[in-house]
Amino acid sequence: MPLQVKLQGALGPLRKELEEALALMSEEEEKTTECQDVKSTLTRSENVKLQEPEAVSTALKNVYKISLDMREALQRFGVKELCEPEGEFFYQGQI
Predict the structure, then answer these.
(1) Is the domain of 44 the same as that of 69?
(2) Which domain holds residue 76?
(3) Are residues 18 and 40 in the same domain?
(4) Quick check: pTM over 0.70?
(5) Rounded to an integer, what distance in angstroms lies between the CA atom of residue 47 and that of residue 85?
(6) Residue of 55, 53, 64 whose CA lies nearest to 91
C-alpha cells in the first residue's frame, strides 16, 4: 500500500478528533460567557439597596376583595356589599 493511501486513511480519524475538539472548545467558550454573565449579575445585585419592610397588622379583617363574577353568588347568600370610592367591591360578613 502506498504511503499516500496510508496517510489518507489516517486523516479521517484525525479530522473527527479535530471536530470533536473544536466542539468542546465552543462549549467551553459558551460556559465561560455564561459564567461571566452570572458574575456580572451578581456584581450588579450587590449594589442594590433593599427597602426596609413595612410593619403589617396581624389582626385579621373580615373584609374581602371579590371579583365581579362572585357578586351574584354572594348576594344570593345575603352577604352585605360595600363599594369603595375607587369602584372596587368588597364584601363584609361570614363567607
Answers:
(1) no
(2) 63-92
(3) yes
(4) no
(5) 41
(6) 64
What is the spatial distance between Cα 66 and Cα 91, in angstroms, rounded to a whole number?
A: 7
Residues 41 and 76 in one domain: no
Q: Which pLDDT score is estimated for 83?
A: 53
Do 3 and 44 fall into the same domain? yes
Residue 56 lies in a domain: no
Phi-psi region of 87 (alpha: psi -120 to 50; beta: other; left: phi over 0): left
pLDDT tens-digit series, residues 10-48: 888 889 999 999 999 999 999 999 999 999 999 888 888
Q: Is the pLDDT of residue 85 over 50?
A: no
Q: How far apart are CA 45 and CA 55, in angstroms?
A: 25
What mean pLDDT is reported for the chain? Answer: 77
- Contact in structure between 51 and 40 (CB atoms under 8 Å): no
Burial of 93: CB neighbours in 10 Å, binned 0-12, 13-18, 19+: middle
